[in-house]
Amino acid sequence: MSILGRYVLVWVVAVLTLMLATSLLPGFRLDTSRPGSWLAVLAVPVIFAVGLIVLRPLLVLATLPLNGLTLGLPSLLFNGLILYLAAKTQPAFIIENYGDALLGIFVMTAISTGITAWLGLDEAYPFFQSIIHRYGRRFGPRLSRKPLRGLLILQIDGLAKDHLETALQRGRMPTISALLARKSHQLHGWHCGVPSNTPAVQAGMLYGERWNVPGYRWFDRQAQKMRVVSRPDDLRILEERAASRGTPLLAGGSCINSFMSGGAAKRLMTVSAVGEDTSKRRKGEQADFNLFFLSPYAYTKAVLDTAYDFFAGLFLAVVGQLDRSRPRLKWSFKRIAQRSVANAFLRNLSFFWLKQDMVRGVPIIYSNFVGYDDVAHYSGPETREAQQSLAAFDRRLRQLTRRAQRGSPIRYEVVLLSDHGQTPSVPFRIRY
Fold it and tell me: Where in the chain is the domain with CATH 3.40.720?
């Protein structure tokens, strides 16, 4: 599809979305008694898009520290403000107040997400996306020679081969099914060894050396203290051991949402990098956070997906407690909120950063997706909740594989893996 055709198609989607919003939201109205009322429906999406291009970057840049502290909340509020102002320019199109405009942003994002996915489009605001990609290239790697190929490593945390095959048989993961059917990929099982946890597997994969990685928690006899890999200082001790005996896999590349960095030049949401005093690298990482907040579509969709995941998780938790035939851990609002962030918000954030790095031509990129592991630990690895998490990953993977083929300056080979599996079990306190 040509660039002009793509913009026209996105504009048509925006018009349809706005018309649906007027029928769903009482605060959205089209005054058909005014002359040229239908022109207002055609004009508001254009004015809104122009407002996003002109006003949103200025507003987001002016509130960068606040965005960092509140996970981008001001950038979400700006979307509602710009839509409200866009409607004010067209008297025939009425949005009652700012609250209705903010609610409309969520509804319009949900509708446009469904339509654009059905049409096979990656983004609801392609022009804004191109600006973000162009600006983001400034923070890419400085390579003396551009590689001919790149490597994209995507890890689904905690997914056993049997449970993946179950998801494929149920039609939950059509993208992976298509990769296997085309024979571009093969499915293999492997033994993750002992200890069978993420830090140990990452040490072996990223450094080729998992020697002296005792487990998630261990007692340091020399220091006479208990250590946990979720503490950055403790984890760095393990990573330094692995790095001293192996070669880093991610040198010159990017690491996203991981325990260990693998020697990556950019370390986003990486536990071992927390607290490091490397201001030059931090500047590029902070820029990637800001680009996410700057995107009018990516951030709003992440918030919407997180909210949906929270209420879906709440409903399924209540239903699960009524089902006495299958034991599950007790739920709490805090626990479901944490799950929603891991399963939805971090997934959206990681895929946004992956696309940014692919546009930059980063030679090797690694990202760990913890949503399935988090859900499966509490509800079970083959439950509906866990399967839905895999389905959501598969939908985003489809967009990423398209970009790997034609939307990046280099051609990427995509590797999918899991670090360990899970076995359905009954908690000890319930059994005994």
Answer: 142-430
> For residue 127, what pLDDT is reported?
58
Give just the sign of the alpha carbon dihedral 111, 117, 119, 123: positive
Between β-strands 266-270 and 254-258, what pairing exists: parallel, antiparallel or unpaired?
parallel
Options 3.40.50, 3.30.530, 3.40.720, 3.30.565; CATH of 142-430: 3.40.720
422: pLDDT strictly greater than 70: yes
Asked if 166 and 382 touch (Cβ cutoff 8 Å), the reply is: yes
Which residues lie closer than 8 Å to 211 by C-beta, 6 or more apart? 241, 242, 245
Closest to 359 (Cα-Cα) out of 141, 70, 50: 141
In contact, 1 and 9? CB cutoff 8 Å: yes
- DSSP annotation string for 188-235: ------SS-SHHHHHHHHHHS--TT---SEEEETTTTEEEETTSHHHH
How many of the other CB atoms lie within 10 Å of CB of 281? 14
| Of 89, 63, 93, 94, nearest in space to 76 by CA | 63
The pTM for the full model equals 0.81
Side-chain half-sphere exposure of 272, counting CA atoms within 13 A: 24
Q: How far apart are CA 99 and CA 102, in angstroms?
A: 5
Region for residue 200 given its phi and psi (left: phi exceeds 0; alpha: psi -120 to 50; beta: otherwise)? alpha
Residue 157 has pLDDT above 90, yes or no: yes
Taking alpha carbons only, the member of 217, 240, 220, 239 closest to residue 230 is 217
Mean pLDDT of the region 129-149: 66
Condensed to tens digits (0 to 9), the pLDDT of residues 227-248 reads 898 899 999 988 988 888 888 9
Contact between 301 and 348 under an 8 Å Cβ cutoff? The reply is yes
Per-position DSSP letters for 280-321, written without gaps between them: HHHHHHHHHHHHHHH-TTHHHHHHHHHHHHHHHHHHHHHHHH
Q: 26: which 2 tokens?
A: 């009482």
